[in-house]
Amino acid sequence: MSVHFTEYRTEYFEELLDAFLDAFSKYFVSFRPGKEQFHRRIYSKFNISTELSGVAMSGNKIESFILHTINTYQKKKTIYNGGTGTRINRQGEKMANRLYEYLFPKLKATGAERVLLEVVDKNMRAQKLYENLGFKFTRVLKCYKLTDQIKVSNNTNLTIEPGEWNDSLINNLSFEPCFMDSTNQLHYNLKHEKVLIARMDNQPVGHLVFQPDLGRISQLAVHSDHRKKGIGKQLVSACHQYTHSAELTILNIPESELETTDALEKMGFMNEIDQFELELII
Question: Is 118's pLDDT higher than 80?
């Protein structure tokens, strides 16, 4: 059956989930979200731009998809690719290439400066696809998992309690998190995130933002005046008390941020996989 290309529509959601699960069924990392989790990922965390996202369809069946959102990141108007996939039995037909060709005029019309995405370092097929489309490597991003609970001694001068997000917390950051966890993007998913705030003498000195049901940490930061005092470790320990997951994950930490990667590894986080960030100037 012939394939036609069209913008993604909300009524395609269940078919998109089916195509996603098929496309990533043999992927390097196991990720098989349920319907509710996938809906939240697409519409809240990712905040999909339906008019910038495309699907390749045969009849009513999605064979391939590219999902985009748009936001300001690193002070640049940025389109972010949060998912590209093709059903296993249609791979090798260059559908994603053709789908990007269909989408490029729409992406350029936004006035965005670039398209940004991440690809697993072992995924040579995807890297080749993006290279052929003109994407260039920008940096290595490291993904971490913690399976054991952290034991900490009580610091009587420090309190860690749930709080509300406010943009002054960005003063704790030593670098801008990856696109999906950046402050501009974080706002779309705050109803599904829990914020823990560390205070000394009633002044905020650090914070941790995470999704309690998934154990997925979006931001972990300690103010520069209070680092190397164990505050990050205590925030992670507190996170364990609020999460419903046996594991904690924190994704896409720039390899160059040695202070952060070193701190995570000293806590017991394991670097499970690396991703390459790629950029296409448009």
Answer: yes
